[in-house]
Amino acid sequence: MNNQTTEIDLLELLFFIKKKSISIIFSMAAALILAIVFLLVEKDEVNISYEIKINSDAPSMIINCNADFDCKSNFIESIIKGISDRFTIQADERTKVINLTWRGNASEKPIADAAIKTIYQKINSWYIQDYQAYKRIIDDNKNNVMNGSELYTKIAFITKLDYSKEKDFIFISKSDVSKKYKTGIFIVLSLMIGFILSTFYHLTKRSIIEYNEKKIFKKTQIN
Fold it and tell me: CB neighbours of 183 closer than 8 A, spacing ≥ 6?
């Protein structure tokens, strides 16, 4: 019995939507036009993406982070934020990659590429300075009480590694430019929103009318 009632309600709803189809189609068309206008206005808005791969860990990373990739990426993130606040930074633990995204106009690509070049130079410079700082600790503490400690052993091992080649520290991929708004998805969503809002409006209006009619009918019955 409940199934039959549900089927009747569903059929009634479909008939109601069919009855209001012209209005619903008009709403969907209006939503589509607005979406197309928006896409035309925003046609030059893009996402410019880069990937940073850590090829060699700095002494600070090894001592403070061990195998914690998020900890290592925090070192990189602090350098990037000191250069530009235009990048969205996201560390991917699974792929061991730091993703950078510049959101803006397509004409800003040279600015983004210049910022990436500066970031690359600053990170490499930091690696070298970090290595040299820990090497000085070893050189200054050969006969110190620190000699023989676990920290001293770690630093001594690290400074034996080759940190002289900048290309060994990080790798930054070439820029990948993509549209900020996917045309197909955006249009489909606008049509769905137009359909849902129009249908909701008509159903709400119908419910209000039916409620008022029942209210008037009850009053007449009482009188």
Answer: 39
